[in-house]
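Progress against Task 2.4 (sequence-to-structure conversion) is shown through the following example record, which the project officer requested during the mid-term review.
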Amino acid sequence: MDHETILKGKYPAKQHAKRVVDYIRSKVPNATGVLYLESRMAKLIEDNDENEPFRQRRFFYYLTGCNLADCYVIHDMDTAKTTLFIPPIDPESVIWSGLPVSVEEAKAQYDVDEVKYTTDVNATLAHIGVEKPNGTVYAIPHQVSEFVTFIEFDHKNFSVLKEAIEVSRVVKSEFELALIAKANAISHSAHLNVMQKVAHVENERELEAVFIGECIAAGAPHQAYHSIVAAGRAAATLHYVHNNAPMAGKLNLLLDAGAEYDCYASDITRTFPINGKFTKESRAIYDIVYKMQLDCIAVLKEGVLWDDVHLLAHKIAIDGLLALGILKGDKDEILADRTSVAFFPHGLGHYLGMDTHDTGGNPNYADKDTMFRYLRVRGTLPAGSVITVEPGIYFCNFIIEPFLKDPKHSQHINADVLEQYWDVGGVRIEDNIVITKTGSANLTTAIKDPDEMESIISGR
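C-alpha cells generated for the chain above:
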C-alpha cells in the first residue's frame, strides 16, 4: 500500500457519515433529521492552569477528521451536508498560544461542506429544526453540552447513533487503512531502534524512551497505548506496566508498543533475546508462537469465524508443548480440558482502528468456556476490517500454579520439564492484519524472523 500518496487526500468524513446514516435507516426506516456530535472539550488539570492531555472523541473524529478541541458537527441526513463548528478567536488565548485554525483553513483541511463558529450552533440547529418538522436529532447520551438545545426538533434519539458509528468503524476506508499503515511504518523504525540498542542498556525505561523518541521524531507524538517493555520473567505479565526494571541477567525482552498517527493506532509485539542469541528453551518457545501466528494468518479471509482461528492457535500450541515435553498425554484430551489456557490465557487478537481495542468485536466475557472468555472478537470477520493476530505462550507462576494443583490439569503438565522454562518469561508476536475477500494483507513490517533479529541485536 502506498500510504503516503493516499494520505495526501482528505480524511473521508462524508463517506463515513453516509455509512452511519445507512445503518441508522436500517434500524429506523425512513429516518430523517440530523446527526449531532461534539468533540472533546478542553479541560484544565486540577490545581493547575494547564490543560489536560487532549484525546479527541473518536465518534466526532469519525464524522469530521478534525482533531481540534471544543468543536461541534451537524450532518444533515437528507441533504448530506456536513457543518463543522470551530471556536471563535479569543484574543486572550492568542497572546499565549498563537492564532487558532481559521474558518477558511478548516474548510480546506476537513471533508465538510461548511465551517461556522461555535457561537452559531444553537441558531443553526433551530433553523434546521424548523425546516424539518418531522425530523429527528440523533446524538449520543452524555455527550451534549448543557447550553445546546434541540428545542425545534420534535423527536430526539439518543440510542442508535453510538451503535451506528461503532458498527460502521469495523470496516475501514482506504484512507483509514493508510493511517494504520503509516502508524505501523513509524513503529517499525522504533522497534528496530530498540533491537539495535537492547544489548547496551541497563534498564527497561531506557528502551521505552528509545521507542517513544523515535515515534515523536517521525511525527507521531502520541502512543496508541502504554508500552509494555518487559525483560525476563516480567514478560509473563500480560499487561506489564512498570517498565523500570534492570536488564542484567535476563534472557528476553517482550516489547509491545505502537505509535498512534492522526488518531489511528498500531499495535505490535516482538520478543527477542537481550544478548543477541536465543537460548535453546527460548528459541523453542519462540518457534511455536511463530508457527501459531503464521498458520493463523494463513487461514484469514472474509467470513472466517474468529473463534475457529483462536482454536487453531491453541491446537498448534498444544502440539508444540507436547513435543517439548511440557505437556503430556493425549492432545484431544488436553484441548477438551482447556489445559493449554494455562500457557495461552488471552484471546488471539482484537479489532484495530482509532482505538487499540477497537469497536464492534462483541466479546463475551461471561463465557463459561475459559478458552474463549477473553476473546475480544466473536463472530465472522468482514473484508476491510483490521485485526491483530497476537498468539503467545507464557510461563507465569500465578496462572500456572493453580493448574498444577488441579488434578484435571496437572495430569497433562510435566512439572519437571516446566522448570527449565520459567526464565523464558513469555513470548508474544503481534501483527496488524487487513481482512480481504480472498485472504489478508499484513500492515506490520517490524522484523520478527528470529535469525534476523539475532543478527540485528548482535550487530552483524
